[in-house]
Here is the input.
Amino acid sequence: AQKVTQAQTEISVVEKEDVTLDCVYETRDTTYYLFWYKQPPSGELVFLIRRNSFDEQNEISGRYSWNFQKSTSSFNFTITASQVVDSAVYFCALSEAGGYGGATNKLIFGTGTLLAVQP
Amino acid sequence: NAGVTQTPKFRVLKTGQSMTLLCAQDMNHEYMYWYRQDPGMGLRLIHYSVGEGTTAKGEVPDGYNVSRLKKQNFLLGLESAAPSQTSVYFCASSYPRATGYYGYTFGSGTRLTVV
Here is the structure.
């Protein structure tokens, strides 16, 4: 069965510190997608990144970077030089195989990591 | 282009009352999902639908029913609300992966309190 584990429940850092949010997943699918979402205090879910199981290249987008390692089933998220606006709950999620023929494309979430960035 | 719209945004129910949450999408997505979010639990799938007229149970379906009579709408019903159903409910939609599009669109959520 698919499962996503975010072992860090809460992280508190001081502004300008770097912070890494961990995500470990379990799946028997050979084709899958991994996602990160941000949920600010306002409550909406903000899409950050999607990565497919065939692409292990790390990705950098501004202050955000993602490290995908199939060998350890991890998809970690790093914020460089954190800012107060980064304070939010961050969710890692896994999409099981989907498509026509009865599959579901369900998105399975981890329990989230609350990041508090102090000024 | 509104995306996914959930109504209502807030609701307070008394134990035993019934209500329906509406999710409407205007992107012609085949798949739709209802999640609930509780502190420390992340988002858990309640029910989902892979097409008009079809529904299926997710991880936590007990106490809920759903209907997908029209492709653009996915309704979540609570027949007899219980305090354990106090939660934030999110609706989402997506295309099947075979279409080549792999994203999900989420609504803004419905905060439901059962007293």
Remarks:
- Chain A has a mean pLDDT of 90.
- The interface with chain B takes residues 6, 9, 33, 35, 43-45, 47, 50, 52, 91, 95, 97-100, 102-112 of chain A (CB under 8 Å).
